[in-house]
Design brief:
The chain is mainly alpha-helical and 767 residues long. Helix content is 56%, strand content 5%. Helix 1 crosses helix 2, helix 9 runs antiparallel to helix 10 and helix 21 packs antiparallel against helix 24.
Length: 767
Amino acid sequence: MGVIRFELLGPLRARRDGDTLDLGAAKQRAVLATLLLSANRPVSAARIVEVVWQGEPPANGTNVVQKYVAGLRRVLEPDRAPRSSGELLTLTAAGYVLALERGDTDVDRFDELVRQGHHQRELGDLEKAAATVRSALDLWRSSEALAGISGPVFDEARREFETRHADAAETWADLQLDLGHHAGLLPDLSSLIERHPLSESLRATQMLTLYRTGRQAESLEAYRATVRLLKSHGLTPTAQLQTLHNRLLNDSPDLLPAPARQFSSGGRVRIDVLGPLRACRDGELIDLGSSKQQAVLATLLLSANSTVTPERILAAVWPDDARPDNGTNVIQKYVAGLRKVLDPHRAPRSAGEVLTLTDVGYRLEVPPGGSDLDEFAGRIIRARELRAGDDLEKAAEELESALRLWRGEVLTGFVGPVFDSARDRLNDDRASALEDHAEILLTLGRLDALIESLPAQINEFPLRERLRAVQMEALYRSGRRAEALSAYAEIRRLLVDQYGIEPSQGLQSLYARLLDDKRSPAGAASPWEGNSLATVPTSAPPDASSGRPRRTRGQRIRLKILAAALPILTWGFACGPMMGVLAWRRRSRLLGLAAIVYFALQWTGAVLFSQSPEDFSGIKDDIGMSLIIFPFLACSAHAAIIVAPASSAAERRLAGASRRVAREIAARSPLDAQRLGIGRPDLPRTFDDGGLVDPNHVPAALLAKVPGISSQHAALIVIDRTQRGPFTSLEDLSKRGLLPHPLPASIADHLVIVDQPTVTEATNLPE
């Protein structure tokens, strides 16, 4: 039937083997766009109606959605048998699911090309990196993603896509500048700045390009134009842009492109941190000096080829408050000591080639292969490319070579949050490599080697579900079904006890298959479809008492009206049964007693009323009518009070406790926090974090739902993090003038900062 590729970076389009498909009417295209934005996750018919019709649903919305889905199925799966579920667009109990593989959309290909470009840049191949990022930008067929499809959900998606385009454009412009392509860069920069007028990075590149082409006056005018624009938006230029302006005014010589330099004129130096820190020149170990001097080097290496400010070095090397009084001078001393051993042939008072000083800090120049970090990352990338090309033997060899680079604990002997965070990220990279290697060995059928090596790896990384999945499959294929089922029980017990969650849906599916004794064919692909700790989608945080999604205020009001109307419409005869159902569902004896009382009063009144003579109204009539009317009025009020209650004080306390637990997880292990989706209500997850929001990641619409944050504040927060980088702490929100100082407790209680993953980690986190 051919592979279908979906294109969102422009007008919505679907192509099969190069041929464009007719996606039908505008509403049908909007239904497809809704499913694409939630690919591989169920979307209910009600949600599709809400997104596509924006509060003005058709009378028979579910039937209309079914009609459009049927139309899409005819176009996307023309060979599907009638009344069959299909493979691409399926209906589940939770809604419609559009099943896509990675790379089936131009958004996936854009993200992958940008990632490759960043890695090529890290390896020093600037020409290739620039070409790769340019290829990513060329995927955009219009300045507007999903062009022609309107609605708040699509507008929010467009803003997110546009932010990613801006980031890629900034990277490409920086690469062109580094390559010295100044003359031809200005026209492209002008069009990019027109598209992203608030991007200070693009404007800084434009200023520097104008300066390097001999147009200093135009460069300074570009700065003034930027200041005027930012001021009109209530913003001020960042410190970096102001510093560049001052350097332009002073004709700083370092603004001109520097000639290519070798890593060291005294021989090739390599610095390794995947174990105890060490540096070698042509195979000979170098004495790196005292522990503090080594910590300075480690800090610079973790940000190799980037400028590190003295403040960041102080925070890393002296993590507590016991910093030296003359910290800047102490750092200068240690940097001078490192220059002596790493660049011994540097002329006195010259800039040096290995460790350079810039206007804002220090920069360690590390060429491709100049550290084991570089080599490890490069081998991992190559292994994944080989695996994608089905060259599994070579992929396994690359991974084995990468894993052999580890000589022990990363950054041994260095303490403090900066090194702890780096250690966690690098260990997670290693765990991902172990998972890739295990899955390849499983596909190659090397079961004995897997069964022997996996216990030690699982003991080191007990929460890595991909390792557990491979172990279960390997044991099962070896005829050890009971041990495979026992391995599932072990990981489930660990997850439930430690995090209060069930294993992910991928692991549960594998367990169910093993229970049914359905053996995978030898050499089958990995049994694992993802490694997130929480992959089952939910539309809202679970209710504390029942595990069901919390109802919205509108839903609660409608339920209360229905509950109050039912006794009146039935003249009270529904009171007893209704209270009985509520008593059974809530396990409440008091409600059960109320059900009996209502039932008895209603029927007593009915009996008395029926026994009264027809020719006159007597006492029995009055009592009977009273026993009919007053109980059902009381029942109506009773039902309106107890049905669909708002969150109670107990629930609020429970939500606060959930937030405290989530914060502890985020502080102890940011990687686990990212997998659990803490602070990410925009992601599908099952872990209840009590309603926390991470201002570094969520869109403005969700930020505006935090008590005390207006939609204007939310928009400014998103603009600021895009222009000036992520927030390192909640206090940054006040320091940058986005929220009041000090930060109100009502706002801080609902916000959390979770560390960003590395590029390699990001490929293993939930989308």
